[in-house]
Amino acid sequence: MTFSIVARCARTGQLAAMVASSSPAVAARCAYARAGIGAVTTQNITDPRLGPAMLDLLARGLSAEAALAAVQAKASHLQYRQLTAIDAKGGTALFSGAHTLGVHGQAHGVNVVSAGNLLANANVPAGIVAAFEASDVADELGARVLSAMQAGVAAGGEAGPIKSVGLVLVDKEAWPLADLRVDWHDEPLTAMAALWDVWRPQMYDYVTRALDPSAAPSYGVPGDE
């Protein structure tokens, strides 16, 4: 039903969460990230409360592993959940409950974690992690996680077709640098790649517009030449 990546850029400190699913609007309930704090996914039979709860624990200074342990101590129906987390230092944590659906897997590497359920094969998360680790650290984190998720599809992806995908990318400000979603599409990763190509060249301009409007570039629309 879902496979995902959470990752950190060692060069910039940016954090990202990206998820894909056969269900609609997957990112609305599964992908969470907070600037300078961490990134989290909560998936399988999803409890969306766990994403903000994990980020709150990370904000208190807990590592990804400690935050996961704290959630495990209190969360109900945990054996139906699949969780991943990365903290601002690159520490990782993951959990797949006993009732995780179908073929499932999980993997972690340097600054990256991936997990999935109802997969075509259990090696999909390892393929995602390997692709991320092989990507160029000089590139934007959003591009790197997108490429890693495309590698996950090439490795088999879900047992059935994916229909939605979402990316949350945070940098230094309180709002996301990117919050992009394809909520229902026959080729959602292809549509997401096209959306990223539109957003990437201008995403930092929107930060400038917020912080220093006098230095903001034009919008490039009629009336704002």
Can you walk me through this structure?
The structure is a single chain. This protein has 225 residues and is an alpha+beta fold. It has a single domain (2-215), classed as Glutamine Phosphoribosylpyrophosphate, subunit 1, domain 1, CATH 3.60.20. 32% of the residues lie in helices and 27% in strands. It is built from 7 helices and 10 strands. The chain has helices spanning 27-30, 50-59, 64-74, 124-134, 141-154, 188-199, 203-211, and strands at residues 2-8, 15-21, 31-34, 38-44, 81-87, 92-96, 105-109, 112-117, 164-170, 178-182. It has a 6-stranded antiparallel β-sheet with strand order 7-8-1-2-9-10. A 4-stranded antiparallel β-sheet has the order 3-4-5-6. The longest helix is centred in the middle third of the chain and has 14 residues, at 141-154. The radius of gyration is 17 Å and the shape is globular. The N and C termini lie far apart (46 Å).
